[in-house]
Design goal:
This protein is globular. The two termini are about 35 Å apart. By secondary structure, the protein is of the alpha/beta class.
Length: about 400
């Protein structure tokens, strides 16, 4: 039976959610459409740009994203603390970037005229309502999907549905569900044989994170690096098999404000030898501090100024896990499981064989909720549900209970 969205998205249970929207009739309206013989790759950038825009407006952190040929994935964290800390003026300013607002909001933002008696009470109610919407995933997805649908219909001069329905969402109940779902999303292009490695996976959060680090290292703008790679793809049009391939250099490439990983402790990044190689001293605290700062800048390319940590694990660990998983799930390497499984799986209490077997099936095996067996059963009791899809897989993949509460993995 269909469950109300407010029961699936419950911030009391978890702030993390996996969301997905698919094109109508599963048509490839973001790629090579075999019906119209047109190419719509440029629309993928529309989605990324809109996600980037909304990430600056909503108090919702983008943990991972991937735009495929007929659907897209998002892993989101609702940042209630950020939403509550916004001033009334900031709430009005952010909301009117999405919608025109009303005359009271325009009055306050213009600063040219004061409010009439009684208008302040009306404005206070509006601010309360809009503040809640800035931490509402349904409003986030509405603003994203509605914009893309209108742009696509306008481009083709047609009317009608673009998406097959409302977005699908899964509550991620614990840390292991978050990292598994992020890996599932970031490796989507690799699993679909659209890319050989995560860094070659266009329109994904993992490529953006890696490029942010790479461009900082070599000193060239991210936009130039992205467009240089995509220019090669335009040349592989197989003699004009699909019409409409655009010069993506004309498209605006925006950076998505991605969620921040936990800080990396100094001893887990560089040993004493590395500090000495950089001209340091074994006992110099200043060397340790400066090297630690350099290490953090190196290993956490998504740290952008101040802000709370959204992801309870390290960027370095996640990158190693993703690379290891990506090598093992390739179709041409089926059955090959490297012996050097990442340490993060051991800390999560996940067996490498179960991880590799279950990761490609996460979306179909779990329905509304994903997490360890005990997390899912607790939520099932709360919702008075006797059965939850995916509990058996959760037991095999994640185990029964968390290895440690409140610790960074």
């Amino acid at each position: 039976m269909t469950r109300a969205r407010e029961q699936i998205i419950s911030l009391q249970d978890t702030p993390y959610y996996h969301c997905m929207a698919r094109c109508v009739r599963r048509a490839f309206l973001f790629g090579d459409d075999f019906v119209t013989r047109k190419n719509y790759d440029h629309r993928k950038q529309w989605v990324v740009n809109k996600i980037a825009e909304l990430s600056e407006i909503f108090a919702i952190d983008i943990c991972a994203y991937a735009v495929m040929s007929n659907h897209y994935h998002l892993v989101l964290k609702v940042n209630v603390e950020e939403g509550n800390e916004l001033s009334d003026y900031d709430v009005l300013k952010r909301w009117t970037q999405l919608f025109n607002g009303n005359i009271l909001a325009k009055k306050v933002l213009s600063g040219k005229e004061g409010l009439e008696p009684g208008e302040d009470f009306v404005l206070a109610e509006l601010v309360k309502k809009w503040r809640g919407r800035l931490t509402d995933i349904s409003w986030f997805m509405r603003c994203l999907n509605e914009t893309i649908a209108k742009m696509a219909n306008e481009e083709e001069g047609i009317r009608g549905r673009f998406w097959e329905g409302r977005f699908k969402s899964q509550a991620l109940l614990d840390d292991v569900a978050v990292i598994a779902c992020m890996a599932y999303v970031d490796l989507n292009p690799v699993r679909a044989a659209m890319a050989n490695t995560p860094e070659e996976s266009d329109f994904t959060s993992i490529q953006e994170r890696i490029r942010t680090f790479g461009d900082r290292k070599v000193g060239r703008p991210r936009k130039a690096a992205v467009n240089a790679q995509r220019s090669e793809k335009r040349e592989k049009n197989e003699g004009g098999k699909f019409a409409g391939l655009r010069d993506l250099d004309d498209e605006t490439v925006k950076d998505v404000r991605l969620a921040k990983f936990s800080d990396v402790p100094f001893h887990e990044v560089f040993g004493v030898g590395d500090a000495v190689d950089r001209g340091g001293d074994h006992n110099g605290s200043s060397i340790k501090e400066s090297t630690g700062r350099a290490a953090q800048k190196l290993l956490d390319p998504v740290s952008r100024g101040e802000g709370s940590i959204s992801l309870p694990f390290y960027w370095q660990d996640y990158l190693v896990l993703l690379d290891w998983t990506g090598r093992a799930i390739r179709d041409d390497k089926r059955g090959y499981i490297p012996s050097d499984a990442p340490n993060i799986l051991l800390r999560l209490g996940v067996h490498p064989d179960n991880w590799l077997d279950a990761l490609p099936k996460l979306e179909e095996q779990f329905h509304e909720f994903m997490g360890r067996e005990d997390s899912m059963k607790r939520l099932g009791e709360k919702l008075e549900k006797k059965w939850l899809k995916g509990v058996g897989l959760a037991r095999r993949l994640f185990g029964g209970a968390e290895p440690g509460v409140g610790s960074v993995i």
